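Intended use. Records like the one below are meant for learning the mapping from a protein sequence to its folded structure. Do not use them to infer anything beyond what is encoded.
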Amino acid sequence: MNSARSWLIWAIAIVAYVVAVMQRTSLGVSSVEAADRFAVSASVLSSLAVVQLIVYAALQIPVGVILDRLGPRVLIAAGAILMGLGQLTLALAPSIGVAIAGRVLVGAGDALTFISVIRLLSAWFGGRVLPQVSQWTGNIGQLGQVLSAIPLSLVLHEFGWSTAFVAAAAGSVLAAVLVLVFISDGPVVRVVEDRTRTWRESMGLLRQSLARPGTQLGFWSHFVTQSPGTVLSLLWGFPLLTAGLGYTNTVASLLLTLIVAAGMIAGPIIGILSARFPTRRSNLVLGIVTAMAVCWTAVLAWPVEPPFWLIVVLILVVGVGGPGSLVGFDFARTFNPLRSLGSANGVVNVGGFLASFVMMFAIGVALDLLDRMRIAGGLPSDIFTWDSFRIALLIPYVVVGTGVVFLLHARRRTRRKLDEDEGIQVAPLWVALARAWRRKTD
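Structure written out for the chain above:
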């Protein structure tokens, strides 16, 4: 545990996850080109990303069950291969239908990757190191967004659509080879002990994970923190900054990389806080959501186009939501045994992506509706105006607000369940979580 081999395996897993994030976010820097290449509206363009996320979210729980049965190595390698095939399909796509098929493959491969990496870490690391390594994994992995925002974007604008996506596909092939050569599922004894023996047993563990209030608390924590940053980085951030606010492609790419920079700075801090103060994790999540809501409101409520510095502040604060969402996996780890952790992580990981694809699609529909109203009023068609974005970006208030309500409900149920298990009166949340943490680490 925490040996030199553990760190080598972690490094290879990081490479696989970085490549996966690059494939996931590659459409965000090419959304304007995709709209022109396939001659589609904003709502159809949003469906290109939404389908990818629907596949990703829909596969999380089945992948979690398979993960508990087969282990992470096979799934990480298979995910890289699927993403490579998806990007190759997108590179050669002659129509929007074929492009959507390519993004389906990308979403499927992406679905296999992250929770498998998190499950792998739980086999090779332990103690207070594990929450911090998990945070570093999530944050370093976001360098894949930098790869899509800068080098992939440069290749796209310099050499064209097909060359850029073929190069992206090659990255996944390399990741698959590295995983198959260097990664193993865990120390031999732990692999044998922690594997489920039958699919029936795996499904039983899934049902138990779903029923646990702590798993549900992790789901809603992920739901409210991860989604705003995903909406910007995966699809709408680039057209918002370029067509909406008039920034150049280079400036927009650099601004989107600030999401990653903020996460890499905040992630280790959140990891340390989660490890040292496990009884305050839900308050940490709610604090992050509040900060994002304040900055989002300031940008949308600005009388004219918001100043550059305020956009920078918004992006930095939204970037903290990425590492904040990893607290959801801490809840899953606290309230579930290792044998069912794949299923629990799959449930948690659905949260942020469910919120993301609902918001992305609704924003696309709103932009199209607002454009039709412009045309009806005698104005020329212009989907990506700042005035239209100002209205469409009200949608996250509804989605995230709903998630906060359910998070508070899950938090109360978690406290109640813990106190019932202890056979005492309901205690403050921090007391209840402290008991769970002690049972987990003893």
